[in-house]
Each structure stands twice: as structure tokens, then as C-alpha cells.
Amino acid sequence: MAFQRASGILLHPTCLPSRFGIGDLGQSAYAFIDFLERSGQKLWQVLPLGPTGFEHSPYIMNFSSFAGNPLLIDLDQLAADGLIDGSALTALPETSEAAYAKVDFAAVIPHKVNYLRQAFAQFQPDAYYEKFCREQAWWLDDYVLFIALFEDSGNLPWNQWSPELARREPAALQQASEKLHDLIQFHKFLQFQFFDQWAKLRAYANGKGIQIVGDISIYVCHNSSDVWAAPDMFKLDPETYDPAFMAGVPPDYFSATGQLWGNPVYDWEKMEQADYAWWVNRFKATLLYVDIVRVDHFRGFEAYWQVPGGETTAMNGEWIKGPDAKFFEVLQAAVGRLPVMAEDLGIITPEVERLRDQFNFPGMRILQFAFGGDPNNAYLPHHYIQNCVVYPGTHDNDTAIGWWNTASEHEKHHVSEYFGYTHPDQIQNINWELIRVALSSVADLAILPMQDVLGLDGRARMNDPRYNDGQWRWRFTDTNLLSQGLSDRLLKLTQLYSR
């Protein structure tokens, strides 16, 4: 579907200030929405909000595509509800400058979980809670049992549990449910609190005319309740339940050996036989909590890169035909209007473009990709159509300043000529140059990384796809950075270019 002309900011909630070492759904999230309103922004794009595992990637290390991340629960709201003694809450010390902090998950997780357990001990289920558990049971029951078993096993992946549990034999599941009853109830409590707080935050944003742009990553983690609960929907080894084939992309802009994500690929034939019910449920669930869905790795629905299990790079894979238009036809019939943005980056073929355009999904344009070639580069603004989304860079790119500091001389001279300068040295604030170009373009939607609005260098990069460790940690720690002067500057450009 086409969208009205608007702009917004890309910022994951974990990046927000909080005295507990990680951004959450509390006061600073509401302050950020106020900043968006003051700045004339209509969109807040977040990354996937699910519970994360190894290295905390919200895309490839997510324990569930339906659950929320308990680390985002605001402890102060729990204190206000009488579940924690607010005077006993202690902050984690900040050791970095306000604009370049990092989430220290090793410190954050035990600190927050301790308080979450205290809150659970005081919690008394009510009708609202029972309604949530009843309505969400179709995914919630599998997830809470999965995560309880995962913790009880010492964090072993599900295919290394006892064969009876890996195969989901009813007697074994019943016995485990009884044994782990308290742990299961704790995780139900966490999901209830997450979605209760998220619903209030989203309502606050919507009340100020701001829509939430959510994210559906095409693949799910192998060690997830999704794969454990529906192994037939994925290409797994029938004996070990390891991925028989893994997802990724061939060598590209980010990596000479490709990107090997390690997620199991779907058995699309079986999914089709089930009328894509798993995916229909996934979209319906997502649209209960966000307004617009960015579909990550959209090209995988037309054809996907499949790498045999056991490979260590993505080089030895092959393209396999995906479900194509039939999938979206079934989805549209079941869900109705599809407010979808298509992440169509990477190796994009005419077939992928036809699929995107058949359903009128706006694709993405990245300004950092625009200046390394010639005037025919599709990412240059003079090639844009209205039905697209322009970004200076995404969560996978460096910040605008970080990119500029490492750009080639060719790119820098191309940028300076394109922006009307005679030499790159005349460009003082490349982040605002890219913001201005994005906002002034004909693209219906423009989304700006918060790091670029704040004018931060490469130390504030959220993710570098070339590496697994140390990513997804950037945050800022002072809401004073969201100053009135910054709002005024962004508002002026937003109004100037009719967004």
C-alpha cells in the first residue's frame, strides 16, 4: 500500500536512557515520543522486540517471533503498581559519555531479572491477566514452556534436550509443565507485563499522531519456540533436528564471503499445504501491536539463498524459489490491508521488483549506497519514485558521520558535487546534509537514524553485519540530548519539505 508523505526516526527501545543499563518502555520512551511530536515526526521505527539470546541480535537470535523482550519492562511502572519497593531500586552505574554508551548485558540481565522476580512474587492474577493468557494461549503456552525448559536445561538448545521433549511427546510435556509450573508462570507474568506496558506506550504515541513501524524478520532462530513447536514447517535434519539448510545471503556489500545467518529455512511446500497459517498468525499478532510492518529480507519470499547445514560461510549456497505472490495473496485475504514496507536491499532481481510492485509495497532507498558509482545508481535521489522509503542509513549501516569518515575520495567528491559544493572540505555536517536530502526527496516516507539526528560518529553504530559479537549495544543515557534546539532544527526541515 502507498503511504502519505511523512518522516520519522529509527531507534530501538534498548537505545533509550534508563538508570537500569538498558532502554525500556518507561519514562524515557514517553519522552522520546514527545520529542517526535515536537519535531514534527509521524513515525517511530523500532527493531524486532522479541526476547534475544546469544549476542542479543533481535533478528537472528530471537527465542520467539511472538513474545516480547522482558528486559524492556519498565521497573518503575512495576513499582508504581505496588509490585516492587521503589525505594529499593538501585541504578547501574554509567561509565561512558552520554552519547556513546553500551548495553552491558552481563550486568543488566541479572540486575533486572532480580527485580522482575520480586515483582512476580507480589503479583496477584486478575481478570485482565487471565484474559491475556487465554487470548494469547495459541503462542504463549508453547513459548513459556520452551523458555522454562531452556533455562532448566542449563541453556541447551531444544534439539539437545531429551528425545521425548525434543519430539514434544504429550506425556513428557505434561510432566515438564508440572515440574516447571512456577517458572512457567513467571514467564507468563513477564509477557503480560511487557504487552501491557507496550500497549500503553503505543496508545500514547498514536494519541500524538505517531505510528509505530514494527519489524518482521523473515527468519526465526533455530533455538526458538517457533521451530520447536512446528518443526515440520522448517527444513531440519530428521534425526538431529539441526538445520538441514541455513539462511543467509551470498557475497554482498557487507561481506566478501556472504552473510551466514544460521537460521533454518522454511519448508514452503508444507507451509502452502497449511494455507500459510503460521505466517498468517504471525502477521495478525504483529499488527495487534504495531501500525506498519517492515518486512526484513523481502526478496526471500521470491527466492532465498539456501546454504547446506555445516557450512561456515554463505558462499556455497543456491537460490531456491520462494512462495512468491501466492503467499501475499493468502495473507491479504486473511489479514486484509497490508501496511507493509519491503526491505528490498541486496541482490534484487526484476522478479523481486515485480512481486514488490504487484502489492504496492514501498521499497527502501539508502543514501549511503548512492555515491560509490555513476549517475545511474538507483539509490541516488533523482531516481526515486514516490512509493518508497528513504534512509540516510539503516541499523546495519555506519552512522552518517562514521560513513563519511571512511568514505572513498570518489564518494566524497561525488557527494560534494551532488549537494552543490566545490570540494568535500566544505561539507561541515554530513549528517544534516543527508537528512535534508532524505526529507526533500520525492519518497513518500523518510526515516532517520537517531544517531544521525544526534550527529554521532561510528562509535554509535548499532550493527555491523560483518561481525557477530559486540553488536546491538549502542544507547544514549541523557534525555537532555533531545533538546528543544534539536527539535526545532528537525521540525523546520520537516515542515519545509511538507512532511
Mean pLDDT: 96
Rg from Cα = 23 Å
Kindly state the percentage of residues in helix: 25-40%
Largest sheet geometry: 8 strands, parallel
Helix tally? Answer: 18
Could you give the distance between the termini?
Answer: 18 Å
Characterization of the model:
It contains 18 helices and 14 strands. It has 499 residues and is α/β, with parallel strands linked by helices. It has a domain of 160 residues. Helix 4 crosses helix 5 and helix 5 packs across helix 8. 38% of the residues lie in helices and 12% in strands. The strands form 3 sheets. It has an 8-stranded parallel beta sheet. A 4-stranded antiparallel beta sheet has the order 6-5-8-9, with no helix packed on it.
